[in-house]
Amino acid sequence: MSGRSLPSRQINIVLRQPEPHASQMAEAEPQLIGKRTPQEGPLSEIFKELNQMIGLDNVKELVHEIYALLQISQFRAEAGLVSNSHVYHMIFKGSPGTGKTTVARLMGRMFHAMGVLSKGHFIEVERADLVGEYIGHTALKTRELMKKAMGGILFIDEAYSLARGGDKDFGKESIDALVKGMEDKKNDFILILAGYSEEMEQFLATNPGLPSRFPIQVDFEDYHIDQLIQITELMAKEREYVLLPQTIVKLRQHLTEEKAMTWRAFSNARYVRNILEKSMRHQAVRLLSQYINPPSKAELMSIRPEDLKIK
């Protein structure tokens, strides 16, 4: 036998791989399917509503991750495996009108449908609802609101306002009560704090124990111009109105100028909703003054450039 034959045989042995069995291929096949979402029932409606929302790609990804985790946790429990509980308290950071409240409501419904929350109801509060006027009053008010939120979502908008006013401000008392409630009742309700990104970062820095209590932090980005146009058209469609092409041109120009001037205070979807509702009022006045008889269906639906009373 020559000295060169052994390495050749060894290489051939190493390169040979057993053919996969048909059952193994069948087991591996689901991995190629990709993302799966519920096709019927309350969960399917929730995902349908979420997917119809303009933008929010990172938010949609997060919701799918949570759904997948909860679904797999159910499968693990049914298989006799350990099913670990998770903390779902969240921070929503972003400008007004970026969908924070809407997404929080959807999450409440999803957690209820998945059995995490017993009710899934939604309670939205702000500083005035939490902070009292004398010592001890704030903690009482905060505990009462947490009690009402049991089994659902407690959503605090502009939560950073609780940390303003210095050490003597009663807002700190509310924060302490919330932290204690999160620890004592961590599986009974979900707390979502929302506000501007920069202010929320400063708020979290006021208490070293806060960031770790909110394992899920989501950034809601401002909508760009094309998305704002899509949102306006969708809002109009829901109200059975149509923006004419010339109207869209005028709106696009206005939004471009407005965003450039007031980028810090721009309220995104809320801003275009107000513009649309104002234009509907102006359209009504215009039609009533132009027509003696009822206008055509097309005219009743059309929002013309002159109906957009914007600078």
The H-and-E topology, N to C, reads as HHHHEHEHHEHEHHEHEHHHE
CATH superfamily of the largest domain: P-loop containing nucleotide triphosphate hydrolases
- Helix residue percentage: 40-55%
CATH architecture of the largest domain: 3-Layer(aba) Sandwich
Topology-level CATH name of the largest domain: Rossmann fold
Strand order of the largest sheet: 2-3-4-1-5
Describe the structure.
The protein folds into two domains: 41-220, 3-Layer(aba) Sandwich (Rossmann fold), CATH 3.40.50; 225-307, Helicase, Ruva Protein, domain 3. 54% of the residues lie in helices and 9% in strands. The protein has 14 helices and seven strands. It has helices at residues 5-15, 22-28, 41-52, 57-78, 100-113, 127-130, 137-149, 171-184, 197-205, 210-213, 225-238, 245-261, 268-290, 297-301; strands at 90-94, 122-125, 153-156, 190-195, 216-220, 242-243, 302-303. The termini are far apart. Residues 1-33 have low confidence and may be disordered. Residues 86-224 form the AAA+ ATPase domain.
